[in-house]
Amino acid sequence: MHAFTPETYLLFIALGLGAGAFGTVIGAGGGFVLMPVLLLLFPQEPPERLTSISLAVVLVNALSGTEAYARMRRIDFRSGLIFAAATIPGAVLGAVWTGQVNRRFFDLVFGVLLVGLSAFLALKRDGPVQAHLQGRHHLGQVDRHFTEADGEKFDYSYNLGVALPASLVLGFMSSFLGIGGGGLYVSMLVYLLHFPVHAATATSLFVLSIMAAAGTLVHILGGAFHHGAHLMIPLAVGVLVGAQAGAYLARRLAGSFIIKVLAAALGLMGIKILATVAGMAG
Q: Do residues 263 and 186 touch, judged by C-beta distance below 8 A?
């Protein structure tokens, strides 16, 4: 990557600010916003270089957002630690495998995944449903009950037998694509594990901070990260501020609205990436 002008660095700070704020609102870490932009801005760069930058920025954003949500006592730390441990093997493998695929295949997989997830969220008419303990306790069932700082109570149950393999797969996909996977992880927490949306977005960022750290470490050790370190710095400056603003905004938005925004954003980004792939084929 070539050197940039001061004006370009300011633009990347602004991009980081927007990605950080929006990503924190929906618990996505900002990577699903940032990675498509990087793909469009740097069409000649190898996937592993761009994913290394995106994952490092996701790590900064997730840490900042986690700190903000921790002060609100909105994070399910107990469940998050279990999920994060399951994501690490997948995150390491995904970071390694990114360097083994060509750019066009990478973009195609990325675009299809974003459009597919967007369609699922948009067509899910019944919305997220909270699962509560009823009757006898089932094997693998985990019950969670806690109250956040402003008094809102979270009371839900999930199946550990579903959570662990799903976390492993999402760890791989998120690290491979360089998006951190917050959009995927929030969807999993809400629709498969029946987390309340606000608890899902906060817990997702906590899991992302651990998962992104594992993937970033692999990229650093592999040598892919140092080529884009100068770009990561202004993006990280932006997301540090944006994550705090996003956590503040999230307290004032309804869970259903957050899901709709997530679906729209994923769909638009996916269509843009696929259009670029189609243009390359033409």
A: no
